[in-house]
Design brief:
- By secondary structure, the chain is mainly α.
- It has one domain.
- 58% of the residues lie in helices and 7% in strands.
- It has 3 helices and 2 strands.
- It has helices at residues 5-31, 46-54, 86-120, and strands at residues 41-44, 68-71.
- The chain is elongated.
- It starts with a helix and ends with a helix.
C-alpha cells in the first residue's frame, strides 16, 4: 500500500468495515441478551489504531491492523452470567452509526476532490 491518498482510502474502507462488523456484533449481543452465560462481544479497531498512531506509526504501518472481536470482560454480569446491557448496546449502535456516517462522508469528500481535480484538468 502506498502512503499517499490510496492509503487513506484503504484506511477509511477498513474503518467502515470495522463499523459494519461492530453493527453485526452488537446485533448478536442484543439477540443473546437473555441467553444464560452469554458474554458480550466487542470490536476493537479504532482504539488499536489510536495507540499505534500515538506511538508514531505511519500510514503504511497501520495497513496490517484489522478489527478483532473480543469478549467484554469489564461489563458486570447478571446472576446467570450474561453481561449484555441493552442500554449500552443501543448507545454502541448509535455511536457506531455516527462513526460509519463520518467515515463515509470523508470517503465521499475524497472522491469529490478527485472528481474536481479531473474536471479542472480538462
Amino acid at each position: 500500500m502506498d502512503a499517499g491518498a490510496g492509503g487513506n482510502v484503504d484506511l477509511l474502507m477498513r474503518l467502515m468495515s470495522a463499523s459494519t462488523e461492530r453493527a453485526r456484533v452488537s446485533s448478536s449481543n442484543i439477540a443473546n441478551a437473555s441467553t444464560p452465560g452469554y458474554r458480550r462481544q466487542i470490536v476493537q479497531f479504532e482504539n488499536v489504531l489510536r495507540d499505534k498512531i500515538s506511538q508514531g506509526a505511519t500510514l503504511e504501518d497501520l495497513s496490517g491492523i484489522q478489527p478483532s472481536v473480543v469478549e467484554d470482560t469489564i461489563s458486570p454480569g447478571k446472576p446467570d452470567g450474561n453481561n449484555v446491557n441493552l442500554e449500552l448496546e443501543i448507545n454502541t449502535e448509535r455511536q457506531n452509526r455516527l462513526l460509519y456516517e463520518t467515515y463515509a462522508a470523508l470517503l465521499q469528500s475524497h472522491f469529490d476532490m478527485i472528481e474536481t481535480s479531473i474536471q479542472a484538468g480538462r
